Fold each of these.
Amino acid sequence: MKGIDLLYIERVIFYMLIILMLFLFLSSILVLILKRNKETFYIFGMCMSLAIMFSGVLLYIAKKGGISRETQEFLFFNLEIKSKIQYFLITVYEMGYIIAIGRYMFPMFLLFLALHFSMIPWLQRNYWLKRFTFLMPVLSLIIYYPSVFLYLTNIHEGFQQIIAIGTMGWIILYTILSIFLLVYEAYSIEMEFFRRKFILIVSFILSLILFYFLYFGQDPAQVYQFYASKTGIYYMNTVLSIRTYIFIVFINVIFAVIGFTGLLKYTNDIVQSSREEVIIQRKFDAISTGTSVFVHSIKNQLLANRVIFKRINSNLDDIEKVKEYTDALSKQNENILMRIEELYRSVKTSAVHLIPLRLSEVTESAMERFHQKYPDKTVHVELISKCNVLADKNHLSEAIYNLLTNAQEAINDLPNHEGMVILSCYNVRQYTVIEVKDNGIGISKEDVKKICEPFFTKKNSNYNWGMGLHYVRTIAREHFGSLRYESEKDNGSTFYLLLPKF
Amino acid sequence: MKKLFSFMVIALIGLMLVGCSDDGGTGEAAKGEETTKVKVAYMPNYASLNTVVAGIKTGTFKDEGIEVELVEFADGPTIIAALESGSIDVGYIGPGAHVLPIQGEAEIFAFSQLGNADEVIGSAKKGVGNIEDLKGKTIAVATGTSSETILDLTLAEAGLTKDDVTLMNMDASAIVTAMISGSVDAVATWSPNTNAIKNEMGDDAVMLSNNARYADQFPSIASWLVKPGYAEKNEDVLLRFTKGLFKAMDYRVDNLGEVAKWVAEEIAVDPDSVLQQTGDGDWITTKQLMTLIEDGTLEGYYKKQQENFVDAGRLTKEEMRPVEEYVLFDVMKNAAK
């Protein structure tokens, strides 16, 4: 007989199989709860279908036998469990239909998921395609309904072969189509952080498909004709060596872990960013910081004014001097007003009016503001033609202007005019992206997390209050979008303003 | 994430290496090349296993240079499907699956025995005490097997047809559970399932009919078979296997109890339950088998079987064919020499 080691490994693998199924189950439920959206629902559907199909197939194998003791022990852990399953009370029609349900639902959820992820415009426009996805699974489930199936095959025995080939055909077609759509999508995503996440999810889906393909060829009709099948017994032709089983389970565990981590991380991202929101809000609410900075700055300026007033008083005779001081005062006054206005804007962003706009109008306005501040600096602009966004022109251009000035300030200290600021706009997946990129000083790792917090600034000047990025972020959210950024110390920064595609 | 990836890749390579070295291990085990390995399909009951287990234990196969590897199946049709797929070499079938070799799906190279394993059992609690009570009742049956055959015969005797009852098509194991749990009123099945039901239900289980009751109308034949063409290509192996089988057959006749214990050991069940099955067949010796062949009795059994299948609607008249086309009498005769 076998060595103890091999037996031990088999048990471990069996546990892995059970744990994998449980893991798929629980994780998909968990992710579904955490992230109630379509893609998690589809993945949940795929996992459920797999579990249903496998229960049916394992039931069938337990009752039918014909596989080696070794494989039996692998699939059922031990012969006692196998015989328990073997004696499970169920008619052959119920058993076959269980397999049918899992077998036909899996490709359906798979294609739904692929269509959902796909950003091919033609597919998005033709909504009927999504409805069409229902057609084959529903049709198959009707045809394979035991009484319907028996009726059909009674009329003509040849129907069975046709039905078997037909269903196998659409399953393969759905699967190939889905794999193509997913891979194509992964290939065409331009933004790195999107692509990375997407590839994780795709590899997980591919591992589910591998799992499905283990027994996808098990035609329910063979189960209906438990003792009279003339079409052979599928699983018997595909009995794999224990090592292959182990390999497949292993691959699956790895990808399931990676995939779900990807999904969860993705979910976590959202959970975390909303938590971030709460933290930021709290910080913002903690008036102490904000007010003290504000009051301190205003006080500084007023103190400066007091000095000027004193000087005016002692120089009342010299009109020239007085003029100089009042000019300074007026400038200070404008400055204070501007600060107050800026603070007011970033606190009170509820007044955002979204209307359809040419994106170019917004960027032009932002450039105008930018050139008022830096008349002699240039920005490389790359725009896609004819792109509309739903936006508040004033706020959005102010936000872009903020990003542009930040970028300009990051390159100001670079020698020999090496610095470069690029403003580009393009469409990716469901977003219109406004990207501001510079090759400036970058942001250190510790600071990257804090840059959106209000009153956070590294620029030690009287003119910067650290409200810029918080404002941009708030504006992005008001536009139902988000602000993302990638930055590395000394290697420049890239800010992405993601707006929903209009 | 990169670290995790590289860890996994290393783990994967490690696993593959373990796999490879393991390969070397199993290669060593298959050193003895003088013996030919024959994969034998059986069903987990005494009738199916007694000869082959006796042969393994007493070394009659080994003497012929045959190493037997046993593969368990639940039913005959599956065994024939497995023969076709090439995953096994030799198989044992009960009466119900014989329609398939007649239709050309397999060739019979040895007769095993006339069985008495099939029964129709009624539940007294549910008011089924004799065959007439079956009318309007729910009966669990394994369609396409001898379970269906015995039910057909029983219903016919009571003057009933399948339209007079409700049939639930189940696998043989589920039938046991269905009967014990009271989900059905009667069942048609075979040993050892019949014993399991009786042991569990006691007096509530009433045997309504069995093969012996219809022995003259319906010989309940069990046979050994191979896939079409196998006998020609593997003449020598098949002859040696049959020789080993026949010697084991003779040993068995005198040692029914001992063989029952061996069978119980092989299928990991209680020896008592296997001992209950020693009456499931009419066990014969090689000598008796030769007599059956020579006087044409055996051919008569198989002919009668074809007629039964035609009567039951499972075989068309056009599909009937001469017995010697699918029963290889020569193999039996040569092996008995």
Note: The mean pLDDT of chain A is 78.
Amino acid sequence: MLFPTVAFAVFFVIAYTVSWLLRPTYRVWLWVMTALSLVFYGWTDARFVWLLLGSIVVNWGFGGAVHRALAADGTPTAASRNLVRAAVVVNLAFLGFFKYYGFFVESFSDALGAIGLDVTPPLLQVALPVGISFFTFHALSYVIDIGRGQLEPMRLDEVALYMSFFPHLVAGPIVRASEFAPEMRRRADPRSIPVGEAFRLIAFGLFKKVVVSSYLASELVDPVFGAPGTHSSAELLTGVYGYAIQIYADFSGYTDIAIGCALLLGIRFPQNFDAPYRSRTLQEFWRRWHMTLSRWLRDYLYIPLGGSRGTVRATYRNLFLTMVIGGLWHGAAITFVVWGALHGGYLAAERWVRERWAAQDRPPVLPPEATALFQWFVTFHVVCLGWVFFRADSVGTALDVLHGIATASGPAPLVTTGILLVIGLALLSQIVPPTAVTRWEQRFESLGLLPQALAVAGALTVIDVLGPEGVAPFIYFQF
Amino acid sequence: MTGTFPSPPDPQGRRRRPRRPVAEHSAGRILVVMLVGLVLAALVNADAMVERAERKPFGPGRDRSLAIWHPVQDVAHVLQLHRLRDLGDRIVGHEDEPRSGGEVAAPEPPVTTTTLPPEVEDLPPELRSPTPDDPLRVYIGGDSIVRDAGESFLRLTADDPLLRTTLHYEIATGLSRPDYYDWPAALVADAEAHDPEVMFVMFGGNDAQGIVAPDGTVHSTVDSPGWKAEYARRVEMVMDSLRADGRLVLWIGMPPVRSPGFQGRVDIMNAIYEAAAEERPWVRFVDLSTVLGDEQGRYVERKDGVDGALRQGDGIHLARPGADYQARHMLAVLREALEELAPAPTSTPTSPPATTSGG
């Protein structure tokens, strides 16, 4: 079920009503909300509900077994570590089968072909279950945290709701079990819901997804990346900027709606985006972009790889590897690996330059404002360079885009005033002060019941009028 | 240990601003706000909702949607709330787009009438030899399948100074539902705007659905005689409307698809395209069955000489290697036609033929 649909609006009103009616009876609430979440998940394709249910049961079982294998003082033992490893292998095997089977089979076949062996392995048509990456992340977080002695095992019905809770099921944010459990267990007060914040997140999330993302995709990004050789330098460059805004509007829009819906249900999710395009370093960018993923990569990949415990070289290697694996997580394609390597390499280089610069103790070359602007400009364009590979369907297409930006002259009919306005306003939105957002929420909360309802109806109408016919699936559904 | 990694420092997720005392509301009050807001939004946007429901494929799903939205639309019209949406559409310039009124009629057949172009003999058209100064005007039009192949064609010929190609695709469209997108009219408009000399046209991916004959009869199944007759009438009408002096229409058939049931419907549509093309010298049918299928025209995932999967996961759309492969075939068909349909040499050549050898 997609968020920006009438079906979801009806579903959510039902889920909201049922949730608050049943919340006082915790266990009934758990089962009913899990059932509703499975309806949400299986709305368009019920096949993978069984996969999700299987993952819930298996990981609940692993969690209990790992906990029993811990030492009496809660510290890990060899047995608990082996069980955690087994859980990781099982989860990644399922993820790998569904997500990377074709990629690895083709790579294997190509590698054999390169040495003269013509082998055509069976290429199964493996449909990718929506959200498999996200519920696998949730499952791994649950088992690993128990293995580290940081989390008590949860009951089956609690694990079921944690992994299937519909607002975060298909595209995050990635909520750790240690965050979700207290939110789930506390007696949420039905008399105290932050309605201004929730409605603001949902309304602006819908606007970003339905209007901004769809408009940029159809009017600029899809044509430019579809056939870069037929577009001029100005169109290609604007297309890259447009994609930077499109993917931000699409993904942050989705998680805004998810966080807003969860808030209305009495569950607070962690923030997932924090104005990433105002970043002045790539490190800052990753503290503002998909924050729950970067946190997950840090805790479950970077630290197990060794983090910054070893030599400086090992630290750079771990950073680079984490970003490459993070890139591969986005999709089974070389373009995502290049994207991850670009980010990993630049992060390492950025750190190296910063340390060298600090060691030399030189005075600043430029005034602080100019330095900040320069840093922002460089960071934004490094991020955009990464997006070229992220969006392109092959490395060749990405290189065509970059080559065209440098060399393709000609008119730019796709670069319209509307396109430039949307990109400019989206970038300016990154510097909206938090106080302005707070004031907006307070103003909404101070309205009477009917004006609030009118505001809801007005927002939905404006979004529907400005949005295109039909809404494409969220970009991050495929990840 | 973690300082190097660029992740948010607070494991609970950082909030952008400090929590403040909020005027929080009760769950019951919020439910009323949501219900009233959604009902108002439904009334204001009822016309748009009916229009969307009408565009769904004929069947129970469409009937259910219309059964829900028609009463809402009636109430909206009584309360005049639909005027708010009309105002919004006017402000953003959507007022010219189709919007259903109170009564929903059966979808009209294609609005384009068969306007015969200037009289031309029933012979294949002649295609001039393009030059860099006056490249051949090529047009590619159709649904999402031709989008992928069309984009590959554009990439393939981007550096060819002899071809100037226009691509027009509309996702989820075809010839079955002109009430959703009127391709017959769009093709005529495109032909007038771009005056193409070669037109690649490809439909069928979305056409295996109910179709309304001019008398209002709904033909739901593709294998029914009524459906075939009506679809053939539309195909023939489009072919006739694109007829012009010096123009070749290359009608691309549907490639093999994975679903056996859908393949049966594809076979019916391809037979209609091929039969209609055979009767028209200005149209050629481009058969993809063995291009994107095996030697017997059956669906295949991969093919010798193609690096990668031909098709996307749905077993219908083209993956990039498949789209590139189809584009190369389209280019080969085009070049073949250019050679075959080149004007005959004039009777008084100004220079000796190149093949003349001295003696």
Note: Chain B has two domains: 27-91, 136-340.
Amino acid sequence: MAGEEKTPASEKPKEAPKAKLEAVDASEHPWVRSIRAALPDTVVSAKTFAGQVTVVVRKDQIARVARHLKDAEDFKYCVDVTAVDWRDRQPRFDVVYHFYSFSKNDRIRVKCGVAEGEEVPTIATVFLSANWCEREAFDMFGIHFAGHPDLRRILTWDGFHGYPLRKDFPLEGIDTGAAVYPEEWPEGGGPPKDDPNRKVVS
Amino acid sequence: MTDDKISQAEKDEAADFADRAKAQAAGAAETPGAHTLFDVQEMELNFGPQHPSTHGVLRVVLKVDGEKILEARPDVGYLHRGTEKLFETETYPMGIPHTDRMDYIAAATSNHAFCLAIETLLQVEVPKRAQLIRVILDELQRLSSHLVWLGTSGIDLGAVTPFWYAFREREQILDFFEEYCGARLTLNCMRIGGLPFDLTPGWTERLAEFVADVPARIDDYEQLLTDNRIWKKRTVGVGVISAEECIEWGLTGPILRASGLEWDLRRARPYECYEELDFVVPTRQGGDTYDRYIVRVQEMRQSVRIIQQCLAKLEPGEIRGKVPRVIKPVAEEVYASIESPKGEIGFYVVSNGTNKPYRMHVRPPSFINLQALPRLAKGHLVSDLVALIGTIDIVLGEVDR
């Protein structure tokens, strides 16, 4: 069968070296230095934990950072885009990007802080695969990506109000007003009105 | 009814109709876009969400010109259960069963990726025996997932026979899982730092017997499909995508390998004991549906090889690493990923030092791969869309989470 005879090419760097359980400053890491050289005043901080490099950059520069990593540092594959809600922190959200380089066989994590209501430049124009990931982050956290070609909700429906992965969104859900038979079932679904276990949430 | 029996009234009516049609056609020529009898027009067509070949509840809004797809817009989310939110509300070990319900065709690899992420965060070493059993479970799962894919995408394209054979073997694999952990689909078969159970007596011998038999059965499937004229007609040249485009779209797994890039996380960034195992990463150059079929069939053969090597290496020993009773990782973040049957499945964990993850994000291969469906489907026929959904090998539980 095709490809059966090929012998494995074995260039395999070991997974994360067994390090102590704390992050190390990585501001002198070659990738971080490369970003700093190309885009001054962009890198806020950088660290390494478990062999994984995390760079925090300014949010208005994120598209340029992505472009720089893709073109100059060969991070051609955008693994994932997501967000984290730090409810009481300022800025409230972190948008987290993972990029992978086939030539380096390594990943880099880029983060930027975003306050509520602020916009982040989209990277969907740099990496096509970021399109749905950013839509998901918008859907789940309400983070707006400026310049995104098609920023609509993706997992919830278009009329949905609220952002489920925010920390202040109740686990039980919210009343969405999506009841089909309001006389039988309460608005938003759930147990019938006369059910003693029914708990009103919102 | 003969001509002379047609009444004058009927003749008038026919003439009237012809006049009206002419007038309409003339009007249409003046106002473009107006509907005429034979005008070719674009049409919107709903494909799913209850279409059997969407493998779940996927809705694709198609813009078609006759049979040709001009635009395809996948609409997902029908199965959204908020898994990532649930992770945040439960302790680390309690998250494992939720991962079963994402990719329910390949629960072991989801379990594995989840555990690996937390092990990376805790920097826990997994004992050798647990590593080997994990690899066996992963590869069994890859076999069964590819068998489901083979059977169902065969059915989608009208080849009903392979389905019965593929599901016969899958049934036996599920029996092995059932004997190991009691479940057939939602396995919950890994724990942070190792495994929940040791193998039952006789399991390895029976598995060795079974996998020795599998290559001959794969030959049977290939005999039904590989040189089948209808199968080739439906798959060769359908949904061609180059390796560069795959990377641009974030496509991983068999799709990427069928486009010519020999990239497999088991080889590129080996986890567990994959670096000690001898296996080939099958690739093809064409990047079409047929090549993806060949790559998956080859992968099944490699999985058999891997399982056989692991079985030979198995020795008695520990199955759980040194994991604290209450898992409270340092306030840090990690991303860890493995090669699932569909592509790269990764977990991004953010810890805040408590016993619950502050944020747990999944990088689901099905979700990211499905994104390229409009690119693959453009210009093909509606019937090819069925082949393309099959070849991406999505599981909607993982797409929607």
Note: Confidence is low (pLDDT under 50) at residues 1-19 of chain A.
Amino acid sequence: MSTPLSRYIHTVAGLLFIFVRAHAQDVVYQTNGKKLECKIIEVTAQKIKYRIPQNPGPAYSMESADALLAFNASGNYVAFPLAEAQQAQAAGFMNPVVGRQFDVIVTTDNQAVAAMELSVGGKEAKFKNDKKKDQKLARTKITVILYKDGRHELFVDPAKAAAALTAAKPQVDKLTGADNAIKTDASANTKEPQATGDAVAFPGGPEEFERFRNKALVKVDELGTYLATIVNPQTPTDKSNSTIDLAVTLFVNEAARVEVSNVNTGIKNKYKIRDYLRRLKLKGADYQQVEVSYADITYASDFRKGPDGNYYGVVSFVQTFKGLVDGKIIYGDVTQRNVTVILKLYEKAVDGETKKLWDVFLADIGIQETRKL
Amino acid sequence: MRFFFWLLAFCAFRPVCAQILQNEVTANFAHQVKQIDEFIERFNNQDNTLIKRYAERLDTTVRFRRENLIKSLFNASDPDWNREDILRFIAQANDTVKPVYLDFFDNHWYAEVNCAVLYRGKPNKLTLVLKIQREKNGASKWVAVSAIADYLRLPVRLDTTTGLNPLSHATDFMNMDLLATDKKNIRNYLPDGHHNDMLSVFLYESQNNRLAISQVNKITYHFMQVGGWVFTVGRFNRQTRNSGWLINRLLPMDAEAKRKYALEKLNLPVEMRTF
């Protein structure tokens, strides 16, 4: 169970992670010859997701097929194309690097060599091997150097380097200890952070946000069902009245308003929710039969924290209305409804105690009548 | 030049749509840019944006390219687009090294809200300009940063010769009352470059019950945060796939031109005219 202390530790750990990463730079070598400096957040066989530190925004993604090589700031790398079977390699890429005291030279014959006290000159590289014996290697024999501080240096074009690094990957992982890290951390969470910082700030985190977002969609769906019942002239008066009462309970309070705008006339009218529902009932009485249908898709914005501490979102959905007399459509329209959803704390008595709980409520609605059928 | 190249934006899945879609309303709604948040999502090519999920529901192999998504955000019914500008803009936004993203909390984007008002008992119009303000606790809200209406403006001076003469101090500014009475030449009593703070006038008039907002008629979003460009987004209510919040104007603009635009178009205060 998540306690305040564990949440605190989790938050601090997260901040530390962000701090270290913020001072480093990941790189993607692309097939078009460009070098993309970024912060990689996920690598799969299909996609590379990343952010641009200089241009904060939501995560961007590129097809893995457009990449040759990706290095992270720790010096981990992935060479593309990446088969599905190599997914663990991609997961390992996101894991913290195992610290090491030596650089790694990948040679043109695809060998990985541990190098200590490495110095690279114009013609050759000098270093000590794992037995501390002095070694020399011509520059022309080197494809890539992976430095212990996370930097890397390519001595050939990225396509050739990618091929060499792919071939040498088992050796490199063995030298750096990454093979063990992959085995133990392959299940590490590499999920993309939320696009908005608000979700992180919400108690319970992004998962809870998502839960409430789904709950909001259920409530909006429920509202749609009630609207269809209320406007239906076949609905007995008692039932339509009780349905109005039920619909109102979905709202944060009865002060919630509905603004109806007709795009043809430009006229907008505002009603309190109960008044609007009563008018809807009267509208249905003009017909012998009505048909109300909804598109099976809705758009829900992200929640954002408002100045009152509540979180606000808007769910958009579209409704088609047809009013029939003697089996003929005498009126019809398509309306888009934008329903404000408020995620707020409310008090509830549980086992004799008053608890503060979060829940979603519907609030103001904007309705646009866009087309007469 | 009339062109509809952006209609190619969805060519990857349109044929599939045509076969599968039974409900035109649903299809239009899926394609429509329903909220400005969705506009930002599509501009940024976010993975979870609705159009992608909708298209993937129809065809799991569908792949979106960001340039096509951005093209689809332009109002396709305008025959007067400058094709070269659009292509340059998209190339800049979609640059693989320094791509451009929009963030809801960016500084330089504004909502121009045209309102119907009652001013001194008579119907009139008013434009309010709003921006998102981020609070320290992570909350945010829209705040009004300027107001525009002819009746809130200081009048153009008719006579440049009036004003407080340079020795007014010696008479203890005895003509100070002219500031209240020389109404048509009030600018003569103010420094050159005085910012016409119509927002304060609006607030004063509404606080004194002389001005009331009846309804919002139209909203235009001005995005000024992209280097070298300003574009505006308006709502197109129509039952087509190219509907909702779409780019209706794209202007190449350097920093100086943006400062001028911020003043002349949006009447922004000086602290918001830094680019």
Note: The interface with chain A takes residues 23, 25-26, 29-30, 34-35, 37-38, 41, 44-47, 50, 54, 63, 96-104, 135, 137-141, 215-217, 237-239 of chain B (CB under 8 Å).
